[in-house]
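pinned: reference chain
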Amino acid sequence: MKHELEKRLHGKISTSPEDLACYGFDASGLDGSPSVVVWPEDLQDVVAVIDHARSNRTPVIPRGAGTGMTGGTVPSAPHQDAIVMSLERMNRILEIDRENMQVLVEPGVINGDLQRELGRHGLFYPPDPASMNFCTIGGNVAENAGGPRAVKYGVTRDYVMGLEAVLPDGSVITTGVKTAKGVVGYDLTRLLVGSEGTLAVVTKIRLRVLPLPEDIVTLLVLFKDLEKSGNAVTSIMTSGIIPRTLEFMDSEAIRAVENYKPVGLPVDVGALLIIELDGDPLVIKKEAEKISYLCSQQGGEIVMAEDESAREKVWESRRALSPALYHIMPTKINEDIVVPRNRIPQMLKRLKELAAESGLRIINFGHAGDGNIHVNIMVDKNNRPEYEKATGLVKEVFRATLDLGGTISGEHGVGLTKMDYIGMEIRPAEIELMKRIKQAFDPLNILNPGKVFP
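pinned: its structure tokens
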């Protein structure tokens, strides 16, 4: 197989053990070595890989930066004789259209690099995953990534105007429009966003962008009581103010950060909120005063970031959370549940109860403004009884989430890790319809097989 591909993609292919190991895992902690790695550099290279895969009935796994949390880019049994197609070399910003407020990029562009380049043009791309300095726009599209700013600005799907993509039969399609409106035919763009690389390989992405906000105010609010922080979230979101971000960290998360990378957060509090407002300086100053009052009604202690350095220090603590957790336990089971915002206090209470009942450490943080809580069950995978107890606890977390009208994944997707639970949320008729869509796109089942559906 390598010989045939080498002729078509000379210098863009590897079967070295080191490359197979490096491209066989993602941030989920799962791994499964592929048989070959390829690095296409343009549309023709992607078509060549797909043509080869179709002719040889070989699975192809599209990959961004491997920052996904659910094993979506991991070769899975029985599909480990796979080609991992890393799109990292397709990393050009092709067009910045200031007049029409849009940008055209290749899938390997790093989210943070795009943010910085747009900032130089006075523009702003809102979706900002915690891994924004590493993750790719193509990976964000595959997972419909969100981030802290989603509470005000929405997720990746809300900014993708159109796509160029290669189908599993090797044909190239262009979806979407360049205009602000368009309702001709089915919305294939929104179908492909969040499809986890199972329907097509995206090769170009047209994104809507916004003017850079005029000013930003950042508040850090400390609470002695966990549930009162949840009550404060509800108060803020029903006040008529929509923050730019409304992030949540419980006491365990705060201690984890301070033990890993101290930034001066108090470790004797029950929870904290990171709240940001952006826009006109006079307007957001008044909004900050109102939010401060609402938080103080719930016992919150408010600290305002005085300058950009202080603001960055606050966000440094939030971005340090995921690596900090690995210093507590060798394994974390990370779930990104979402509940209606007014149910956050109930969900936090239930998570606290589950931790007490199981005897396992559960650390919670996330995007409280849109009800998205990252639940981290800390466990040693080598301790088999403990790990089995933790995996059983996942189902209880999902059951509690669904009982409150929530969903089992807000931005991480399904991949491999949530595949067995999808039937808890989606009924058989809907799953069957989704499978028929997959069959219509990919009748040979060569594109990221073994993902999403159990």
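why pinned: The domain at 93-211 is CATH 3.30.465.10 (Uridine Diphospho-n-acetylenolpyruvylglucosamine Reductase; domain 3). The two ends are 29 Å apart (CA to CA).
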